[in-house]
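Handoff note, outgoing to incoming analyst
You'll be picking up this chain. Sequence as last confirmed:
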Amino acid sequence: MKRPAPASRRYGDFLLEIGCEEIPARMLPRAVASFRELLQEALSAHGLLDSAPVELFATPRRLAARCRHLALREPDRREELIGPPRHLAFDARGKPTRAAESFSAKHGFPVANLQVVETPKGEYIAAVRLAPGQPAARVLAEILPALIARIDFPRSMVWAEQSGPRFIRPVRWLLALLDGRPLLFSFGNVPAGAVTFGHRFLASSPIQVKSSDEFLTRLRRSFVLIDPGERQARIEERLQGLLEARGLRLRPDAALLEEILYLNEFPTPILGNFDPKFLALPEEILITVMRDHQKYFAVTDRRGRLAPHFVAVINLDRDRGRIAKNHERVLRARFDDAGFFWQSDQRPTLAARVAILDHMTFESRLGSYGDKMHRMRGLARWMGHTLLAAGHPSVSLEAIDRAALLAKCDLTTQMVGEFPELQGQVGGLYARAQGESEEVALAIDDHYLPASPDDPCPRTLTGAIVSLADKMDTVVGLFGAGLEPTGSSDPFALRRQAQASLRVLLDKRLHLALPELSAFALSQLEAQGSLPRPQEEALVAVLKFFEERARYIFRDVRGFAYDEVNAVLRAGLADVVDADARLEALRDIRPTEDFEPLAVAFKRIRNILDKAESAENWQLPEINREWLSETAERELYTAFLRLRDRVVPLKQSRRYRQALELIASLRPAVDRFFDTVLVMSPDANLQKNRLTLLAALLREFSTIADFSEIVPATKEPAATR
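Most recent structure output, in case you need it:
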């Protein structure tokens, strides 16, 4: 147990920098978050971190952390060494026994100084002493090497000795200061010191520092802006002068900006140009080539139209020669390729490319992309017919089938071969250029969406159905082949695909039953001879997987309470949109007066039924009215029948809030029943009848949500009658 820090406690400035070879930009945000968490946890555990924040900085060549108010010593600790029970340590006259003397001698603690302490097991003797805290410099030297090795990277390497520590890139220097003094430790073959290094090309001489403020200042003078916020401010300031005078604007791209910030230590934007003839190509192609292949920002004019310019960000203080011209030359070559592909790819139409899919392997056990296309068409048609039968508006079976037929054809093009980021988009562009309907073109364009948690869902119903057909075929097919995720391994990104499927269902409010949809997908695989796993076994695994993903979406994305999610999913997840509506209703009704007491009662009902013998020993075909001997059970039975007749049509029309309000109104009758009726009556007939009544109550009124899963704020009654 740690005692509060004394008022005279001293604090100092802590600085740690890990200098290394260039770290990939995409890995740095995750590494920064991990580094912060590890440091805060370790410093707090040793009582060194009070309220001062730990600041983190990162560039491609370094990770750094500082805390300007770190305690210079651990707090003293009050230690209790528990010995034997008091009655064994002292005799009836209060004199120490042999047990007390042995404990005292073992720990080098005088018997006279032993204390009696209260524990959950009673009174025990204890040796209580103060352990002085260690100097922070010693603590940090001990914990930092292991902490650095634990920073989270997707992979790591050894760079000195095979038995040495691992890191994402070879570590070249360590700067570690506490209160102006170097910390004495090493990481691998690199000793910590008080020296850092500036920009690799603009200021490579060693820099001696004594504090974190001096560290930031001297790095800034050496062309290193270690704070990402400073790097962004420099880019924005220079862009203003670069673009505004020309009437140009940067096309916003937050993801590219973050990547650029972690690619450079001293970023400088420069403006480049390209031949306006390339504007005849679709914007999607031009922007993808600039963004994904060259890390350039697209530029628009005042009207928001793409302009024949681009912005590159270089890791220098200025363009010292022909840097912009070199970028222009590279981009021209990329655009020339794209223009050639645009022309040559369309000589065979998308429809003419369908046959080529038979010669492209999708997955060795699941056949070719041609096989997948046929399965997608079958699934898409099934969904279209199902939605039409349910009265869903705007279903075009012709557009759905055509889009599913052509969706994967752009995989056979040179454009996608060179620029794979454009798959789907290229298909949509070619479809539009070749006279396909706008609905079909949009569906092809969108059918990979959502590819990430931040992506939007498809814009149209046709696109949503084709997207679902693609994702469901992949998830169900790989489960059918026995390739489902295990632990943290998910090589086929099936968790992402399943979550995307659920998002599309929720976004378009599509009432499609997951068991039927999954079973149909499996039947298609079996018909093609591509189902190594027994169909029933695969279906059980698929539905369990979708329930796990739905639980994540409802709880961690949609923000529903965990017990509400448990209650609704226990009542069923065949229709994810319906489950979402039931969750909304449950959350709305939960704060009302009768809800939680009724939840307690339902939990009590389930406990009684679980503790009773097997249902076949007491379940009656129907409740016998003549055996309802108590007034409270007759009232409960009458209320049950009355509410059931009113709740059923509300559930059928999905008016779940009104249904739950009616169910909650049952609370007084349930309370009176448990107050006055003995469920486990000595009379076997009465007992069976009462258990059957409770089972009917639980069964009928738990189809929206299983109230027994709700964790109430009030305590559950301890006794069960």
